[in-house]
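I have been asked to look over a protein record a colleague put together. What it holds is a sequence and that sequence's fold in token form. Please read both lines and tell me whether the tokens look consistent with the sequence. I do not need a full report, just your reasoning and any doubts. This is what I was given:
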Amino acid sequence: MALRNYKPVTAGTRWRIGNAYAEITTNVPEKSLLEALPGTGGRNAQGRRSMRYIGGGNKTMYRKIDFKRNKNNIPATVKSIEYDPNRTAFIALLSYADGEKRYILAPKGIEVGTVIISGESVAPEVGNALLLKNMPLGTIVHNIELQPGKGGSMARSAGTYAQLSAKEEKYAVLKMPSGELRKVLITCMATVGAVSNSDHGLQSMGKAGRNRWKGIRPRNRGVAMNPVDHPMGGGEGRSSGGHPRSRTGKYAKGEKTRSRTKGSNKLIIQRRNGKKL
């Protein structure tokens, strides 16, 4: 991926570092794979605001992504690499041999014309989806299932990947993007390769208006509020604050949030901080 630095012809472009979109091949999405995506404005089903600082922004259409990769043993050709406004990674449009079209998360290095395939024991090449038990150790994977047939749910954002570290009787041991070591059922599917758009985190918006286009409203600090509005508000001068906490008083830093009785605790070998459960 390539980044683009803008000439400071305006105040908004002075600090902007954008994506050059060198991998993108078209700006016209596949119409049959689109569906409406209404905005929430941070409101829940009762109409009450449950998330602050959300609202406005450009309208977007949702791209239906094939996370299951369950069209087995049918070769597919990559027709285009596209931008998706709903995720940080790029997406690839596949055209299968039987005529069906599907979107998948675009792996890093994939190009138009590449032929990929999914199945239980296909070759472990970039873009192919297969069972973890049929991959060699050290393989880089993304879009990893947690339950067989449910569809990929881990390592899906831009530039992320996990590495297959070991295989046991029922489980494969994966090193996650956070550094966590965890077991996943060896009969789960995963896609070979890392997710595209790895330099996404190096971009700079350049101006507040670009976040407004994304539906992100200005965020106000708790210490700048009054005591009635936030636990960290109030005080004379800059003496306010205290231990960082949420608006409802829950500690924001240092408090453990993972349940001690969570069922998947037994599958985690080592947490991202190096501690064992």
In short: The chain has two helices and 17 strands. The longest strand covers residues 76-82. The two ends are 37 Å apart (CA to CA).
